User: Fold this.
Amino acid sequence: MTRRALLLALCLVLSGCAGTQFDVTTDMKQGEVTTGTMDESTRGTTGTIADRSNPWDESPVTVGINTSANPSREYTDEVRQALDYWEKNSAQYAGYAIQYELVPDADNPDLIVNFVNDVESCPRVEHAAGCAPYITNAAQISRPMRVDIDDSFSSDSTVLILKHELGHTLGLNHSSAPQSIMAAEAALSTQPLTNATDRDVPWPDAEFTVYLGQTDDREAVREQVRHTLDYYARGAAGTVPSNISFSFTENRANADIVVQFPDNLPCNPGATGSCGGVRGTDPDQDGALEEYDKLTISISGVDTDAIGWYTGYWLGYGFGLEESELASPFRDASRRDRRSKWWT
Assistant:
């Protein structure tokens, strides 16, 4: 009777930089992202192969690494993988061969990979995952050139970001081959994060807006739901934090919690009772949501004096509680219990 909607993380990659955006979906399908570029004139035929001379000259490009933002994490292997890739493939895709010399603590590097908490070097791009100069001729190079990389991503995603950004330093744009590296969209995952079910409040904040759908006997239904919200605002017998608050809204689209009364339950058409579903994000792509942004409670064919109980049951689910962790009124409740003043 329970349905969980897993959300996919999408990377929005912009010319000369990479940005990340987490889109939401309730049907397990990956959403579409529209991307732009910092320099639309660089866009050409999809998968184009470059043919130009080496702006870096023929000597190896010395690459340094700056990890001052997160000294505890070692990035040498990830950077080496990205450099190895372009040493093997730059002649095919950039039109010239490149050689790198990785010296993490180099005093005078030609190129420095700078791992940062927040990438702020790409103008007009929010939530950037990386940023690099787009280099097509030697006049653009002023050593050391700098590539900024967000340090919050997993190892595999970090390598992908590095390959993409280094591709820009070789003169490749989003229309360039290989599209598996330079395409304007790619999947990224963060480092492991705490799952929503393991957090006290698995939401962005503790202030919730509630939308009440159309139903008969609306005032009595609203009173039932209000009792439930007040019960949870008091901590629900210690099962949720006591600093949460609720307010009703007439804006369904922006509501955190939707209580609706369909003729047919989405989880079990033709049946009476209830079902609930949460929507959120899975930025580390471990198959579990790390944060919720919508709880939908569907109730059908239930007496008015039991609506509060059904709402309360699914509110517990919206706080990441398992059946055994719910407040006592919602565990093993009889038909009579559900219609009682259980909130007192």
Remarks:
- The chain has six helices and 14 strands.
- Residues 1-45 have pLDDT under 50 and may be disordered.
- The CA atoms of residues 213 and 260 lie 5 Å apart.
- The longest strand covers residues 291-300.
